[in-house]
Design goal:
By secondary structure, the protein is α+β, with helices and mostly antiparallel strands. The chain is about 25% helix and about 25% strand. The chain has a seven-stranded mixed beta sheet with strand order 3-4-5-9-6-7-8, covered by helices on one side. Strand 4 and strand 5 (about 60-65) form a beta hairpin. The model has no long low-confidence stretch (mean pLDDT about 90).
């Protein structure tokens, strides 16, 4: 028996630097002291700036965003980003999508299941984690949250990122 399985899918990324977004760079340009991969105290020591936002990219089409300070400013900055598909606000249990705000209870009626499989269930599991960011953002189709030259990535709630496949080959019995 030979089995080939995946734990997730992968979607194609658009080409062009505008589709490969460095969230730390963008948040800094918007006036927030953002960083990743280092301790907040180390950031302050290295830069002389007060840390405000920690960005933890995953996939790289999803990111946890931790607001150490200026939570409302961080929310407004994230809402303004063209590359963001869903913006999940952990403490409030709401999701910004397509220019509107929805409660978790409304998601099954709002997010198309064929495009975002099991989105409500997945978001509820995500925000239940103690390690979840204050905000979680997912990338729009074709975007990723890092500067790279990848052709594909995963991590968002979109179907192509979410659904894997399996191939099983059984040989002849002898």
């Amino acid at each position: 028996i030979l089995a080939l399985v995946t734990d997730h899918g992968q979607s194609a990324l658009k080409q062009g630097k505008e589709y490969h977004v460095d969230l730390v760079e963008v948040l800094n340009e918007l006036g927030l002291n953002a960083f990743t991969n280092i301790d907040p105290h180390e950031y302050e020591k290295r830069t002389g700036k007060r840390s405000e936002v920690v960005v933890a990219v995953s996939g790289p089409r999803m990111a946890h965003v931790y607001a150490l300070r200026k939570k409302n400013e961080v929310l407004e900055a994230l809402k303004s980003l063209e590359c963001v598909d869903q913006l999940i606000v952990r403490d409030e249990g709401v999701v910004y999508w397509d220019g509107e705000i929805f409660s978790l209870q409304e998601l099954d009626e709002v997010l198309p299941h064929d495009r975002y499989p099991r989105a409500k269930e997945r978001i509820e599991g995500l925000i239940a984690s103690d390690r979840c960011g204050d905000f979680v953002i997912t990338a729009k189709e074709g975007y990723e949250f890092e500067k790279a030259n990848y052709k594909g990535a995963h991590g968002s709630l979109l179907y192509d990122d979410s659904v894997g496949f399996s191939i099983i080959r059984c040989g002849k019995e002898r």
